[in-house]
Write a structure and sequence with these properties.
Elements lengths: L19 H6 L1 H5 L3 E9 L2 E6 L2 E7 L16 E5 L5 E5 L5 E5 L7 E6 L3 E7 L6 H14 L2 E7 L7 H11 L4 E4 L8 H7 L3 E5 L6 H9 L24 E4 L5 E4 L12 H7 L1 H7 L16 H7 L5 H50 L1
Parallel strand pairs: 3-5, 8-9, 8-11, 9-10, 11-13
Antiparallel strand pairs: 1-2, 1-4, 2-3, 4-5, 6-7, 12-13
Helix pairs in contact: 3-7
Length: about 350
C-alpha cells in the first residue's frame, strides 16, 4: 500500500498544512503505530484534531506540566494513537507560537496558536484607531516568529480610510497594511492572495474577524454579532479558537476577541515593532542613552524634527517596562522552582540516610 504522505497533495492533511518535511520528521512516530494530526481545539482534557482519515476526538496522554507553554493548543501538529479511544501521545516541535502573558497570577505564558505563518491583526475603521493596542499586537506578532499583516476592516464605515492607513503605516514599520470591507468586497481578493500557510486573526471584539473569516471561507461558518455604536465593541461571538482550511489553500485560525494583551518575553518582538526607534538609537552619542536629555541623542533629535512622536517613544518605554517586569516574574518563579527541587532532593537524601542508620 503506497504511503499517502509521500506526496502531501494526496493527503487530506495537506489542506491543513501537512508537508513533505513534516512527513519526513514523522517517520519514527509512524513506525511506532502513531498517526499525524493537527489540533483544532483543546478542552477538558481532550482535543479535536484532523487526521488523514478525518476528524478525531482524542484524550490527552502528554505528561501534565504546570507550564501552559507546553500544553497542546490550536495549530499544534501531534502524534495520535488511533483505536477505540484515540489518544494524543506527543507534540511535534513548533516552528512558531503566539504567546501572551497568562491571565492568571502565575508568570507562565499562554500559547494562543502554534505553527502560524501569518498573524493578521484586524483593526476596525469604524472606530478611532487605538495606537497603543495595535503596537502591543504587533510586538506579539513579531515575537511569534510569524509575519504580521495589518487588516483594516469595515472600510465602508470609515470617514477617511486612507488617512488611517497612512497612520498605521507609521506605527507598523515593515508591515503590509490592507484596507478591506466585507460589505463591499473591497480588497478581499488581494487579501486572499496574500494569505499562505497558516494565518491567525487577532484583534478585539467588534473588529470584524468572524465576518472577515466567513468572507475568506466563502460561507457563513462562524457566528457574527452586532457592535455597539458608541465604541465599536462587540460580544465574543467566537468563544473558542477555530482552525479551518481556506478554499484556495492555506489554513485560517479565528480567535476570541482579546481584552488583555500582556506581553511575555517579547524583547525581540518589541525591537521589530519599534524598528525606527531602534534604528535611531544606534546613532545616539552614548551606547546606554536613555533618550531623555542626553547630549547627542538621535531619538530626541527625531522628535524635535517631527520625525517621531513623543507618544510613540513613551509607548515603547511602557511596553519595555512591562516586558521587563514579566521577565523578572519568570526569573523569580524559576528560582523558586529550583529551590523547591533542591529542598525535595535534600529531604529525600535525609530520609534515605535515616533509614540506613536504622537498619545498621
Amino acid at each position: 500500500m503506497p504511503n499517502l504522505f509521500t506526496d502531501p497533495s494526496s493527503s487530506g492533511l495537506s489542506r491543513y498544512g501537512w508537508t513533505a518535511s513534516l512527513d519526513n520528521s514523522f517517520t519514527e512516530h509512524r513506525e511506532a503505530g502513531l498517526v499525524p494530526a493537527r489540533i483544532v481545539r483543546v478542552d477538558r482534557g481532550r482535543c479535536d484534531a484532523v487526521t488523514e482519515s478525518g476528524p478525531m476526538r482524542a484524550r490527552l496522554m502528554t505528561p501534565h506540566s504546570p507550564d501552559p507553554l507546553l500544553a497542546p493548543c490550536t495549530g499544534d501538529w501531534a502524534a495520535l494513537r488511533p483505536g477505540a479511544e484515540p489518544a494524543l501521545v506527543t507534540l511535534l516541535p513548533r516552528h512558531s507560537a503566539i504567546v501572551r502573558s497568562s491571565a492568571s497570577r502565575s508568570s507562565h505564558g499562554q500559547v494562543l496558536a502554534a505553527n502560524v505563518d501569518i498573524v493578521g491583526i484586524a483593526v476596525s475603521l469604524a472606530v478611532p484607531l487605538d495606537a497603543a493596542k495595535l503596537e502591543r499586537l504587533l510586538a506579539l506578532a513579531w515575537e511569534s516568529g510569524a509575519t504580521p499583516l495589518v487588516i483594516l476592516t469595515k472600510a465602508d464605515l470609515a470617514a477617511d480610510a486612507e488617512a488611517v492607513r497612512a497612520e498605521v503605516g507609521t506605527l507598523a514599520p515593515g508591515v503590509d497594511v490592507q484596507v478591506t470591507s466585507v460589505a463591499t468586497g473591497q480588497n478581499l481578493d488581494v487579501l486572499t492572495a496574500l494569505l499562505s500557510g497558516t494565518t491567525v486573526l487577532l484583534g478585539p471584539s467588534g473588529a470584524g474577524k468572524s465576518s472577515l473569516c466567513n468572507a475568506l471561507l466563502g460561507e457563513d461558518v462562524l457566528a457574527t454579532g452586532e457592535t455597539r455604536a458608541q465604541d465599536g465593541k462587540g460580544r465574543h461571538t467566537t468563544v473558542r479558537r477555530e482552525l479551518l482550511p481556506l478554499p484556495g489553500g492555506g489554513v485560517l485560525i479565528d480567535t476570541p476577541g482579546l481584552r488583555g494583551i500582556s506581553l511575555h518575553d517579547a524583547a525581540d518582538g518589541l525591537e521589530r515593532a519599534f524598528a525606527e526607534i531602534e534604528r535611531l538609537a544606534r546613532d545616539c552619542r552614548f551606547g546606554d542613552c536613555a533618550h531623555q536629555s542626553e547630549p547627542g541623542c538621535a531619538v530626541q533629535a527625531a522628535i524635535g524634527a517631527g520625525e517621531l512622536t513623543e507618544r510613540r517613544l513613551n509607548s515603547y518605554r511602557k511596553l519595555q517596562r512591562e516586558n521587563a517586569w514579566e521577565a523578572s516574574r519568570t526569573d523569580a518563579r524559576l528560582r523558586g522552582e529550583r529551590t523547591n527541587r533542591q529542598k525535595a532532593i535534600t529531604s529525600h537524601l535525609r530520609a534515605t540516610y535515616k533509614f540506613r542508620e536504622q537498619q545498621s
